[in-house]
Each structure stands twice: as structure tokens, then as C-alpha cells.
């Protein structure tokens, strides 16, 4: 049971640090409270021409962002594979071909659905 007491103390410290920081220390040391002027939108010193919620963004913007993340993750997987290409042999080549084929199918699906056009 003595071994678990160290673990219990560690868990209490891990839980108490964010709680104390967020709810006790931060309100005491922050610079100032929010007021009407600080809550106004700032656009390079020019008064805002519209409110942020008066128009909607196209879903295509978010789809392109998700596609960017997917293809970014693809490159993260390609670098270690390229470094260990000779050691992985045919197994690694087949696995990467399957991975790239799945991504290529998704790319063509997005192209067919016209996700990549900025209309």
C-alpha cells in the first residue's frame, strides 16, 4: 500500500496544478478586467464594417481545411517510410501503395464532388 501512496500524491499534484492555475492564481494576477472598449472588434484601427456573425462561411472552406490536414498527415507518414524503404522491402512498398491508393480514392472522390473548387 505504501507504493500506491506515492502514486496518489502524484495524481493529486497533477490534478491540482491546472485547477489552482485556472481558478485561483490567474484571476489574481491578470492584467485587468474586460470593459466595453476591450470587447469591441479591432480591425487595424478602423471601425469594424460588419459584425462577425452576419454572414456564413461556405462549407467548402472547412472541407478544404480537412483535406489539407489529411494530405499533411500523409506526408508525415511518407517521410519515415522513405527513410526505411530498403529495410521494409516489398512489404513496406505494398503497404505504402495501399495507403496511397486509399488517399487517391479519397482525392478523386473530393474532386468529383467539386470540393476543391473555390466557388
Task: Outline the fold blueprint.
Blueprint: H1 2-29, H2 59-83, H3 85-112
Helix pairs in contact: 2-3
Description of the structure:
It is a single chain. This protein has 119 residues and is mostly helical. The protein has one domain: Up-down Bundle (Methane Monooxygenase Hydroxylase, Chain G, domain 1), CATH 1.20.58. The protein has helices at 2-29, 59-83, 85-112. Helix 2 packs antiparallel against helix 3 (85-112).
Low-confidence stretches: none
- SSE string: HHH
Radius of gyration, whole Å? 26 Å
Specify the CATH architecture.
Up-down Bundle
Mean pLDDT: 82
Number of domains: 1
Q: Level of helix content?
A: 55-70%
* Total beta strands: 0
Which CATH top level class fits? Answer: Mainly Alpha
Q: Assign the structural class, choosing from mainly alpha, mainly beta, alpha/beta, alpha+beta, or little secondary structure.
A: mainly alpha
Query: Mind summarizing the main beta sheet?
Result: none
**Beta fraction of the residues?**
under 5%
The CATH topology: Methane Monooxygenase Hydroxylase, Chain G, domain 1
Summarize the structure.
By secondary structure, the protein is an all-alpha fold. The chain has a single domain, classed as Methane Monooxygenase Hydroxylase, Chain G, domain 1 (Up-down Bundle). Helix content is 68%, strand content 0%.
List the defining traits of the structure above.
119 residues; Methane Monooxygenase Hydroxylase, Chain G, domain 1; 3 helices
